[in-house]
Amino acid sequence: MEEYILIIGAHPDDELLGSAGTIKRLINEGYKVISIITALGRKEEAHHIQQLGERANQELGIEKVIFLEHTNLELECVPLHKLVKELEHFIHAYQPSKIFTHHYGDINIDHQKTFQAVLTAARPLPHQEPIELLTFETLSSSEWERNTADKLFKPNYFVNITDTMDAKLAALHHYDVEMRDYPHPRSYEGVKHLGRVRGMTAGVEYAEAFEVIRRIWK
Which InterPro entries would you find in this protein's record (predicted)? Predict the structure, then answer.
């Protein structure tokens, strides 16, 4: 039986900034991965961002990208139950064993709303296989929120991406319109620097860090 994993991001490029190296490892190990993007990107990139997103995800071997096409930076205007229902549909369709999504403390409101919808849609129900829920850090969002206990990204799960960092950067190059010049955190150098910092924490050259939200052993 094929085992699916969902990456659920708010905007095109979010899904890869925080987890592309890990996703590439999982794909190499035989997992099927689906990306879901809840909102559109910036208005000036709207005419081609979905095409760029498909290319970026294909670069990693991701099976499919699903765009929900809500308006950028207006997810707070979408009733939570509507977004939850949309995500429940795909969770039911793919029965993922893991979901990667935004951290609840990100400064971007679309990230926060996406996290809340995922948390609700993936809630553990009787007679349902458990879903491991992990949050990733998104450069230029996770580190810009106030460093208080309720908002701080607290990594407790690290994945060695030394062998897949090049694949992550290659995928992000398809999103070049979203990348910035260093020292902006959402730059190629910023991605590599964060990978090194997380790698040092885990005793490897490059790593991605996650905060585990829910893990159930039935």
Answer: GlcNAc_PI_deacetylase-related (IPR003737), LmbE-like_dom_sf (IPR024078)
Record the tokens describing residue 101, joined without a space.
């999504």
DSSP 142: G
The total of structural domains in the chain comes to: 1
Sheet holding 64-70, edge to edge: 64-70, 32-39, 4-9, 98-102, 132-136, 207-214, 157-160
One-letter amino acid identity for 76?
Answer: E
Bridge-based pairing of strands 64-70 and 32-39 is: parallel
Token pair for residue 88?
Answer: 């429940």
Residue 58: what pLDDT?
Answer: 98
With a cut of 50, list the residues of the chain below it in pLDDT.
none
> How many other C-beta atoms are found inside a 10 Å radius of the C-beta of residue 126?
4
DSSP H or E stretch at residue 90: helix 80-94
Q: For residue 80, give both structure tokens.
A: 């939570």
Of the candidates 19, 15, 23, the one whose C-alpha atom is nearest the C-alpha of residue 41 is 15
- Is pTM beyond 0.90? Reply is yes
Give residues with Cβ within 8 angstroms of 187, minimum separation 6: 179, 180, 181
Q: Which residues form the domain of 41?
A: 4-214
pLDDT at 42: 80
Which of 137, 192, 141 has the alpha carbon at shortest distance from 164? Answer: 192
CATH of the domain at 64: 3.40.50.10320
Q: Give the total residue count for the chain.
A: 218
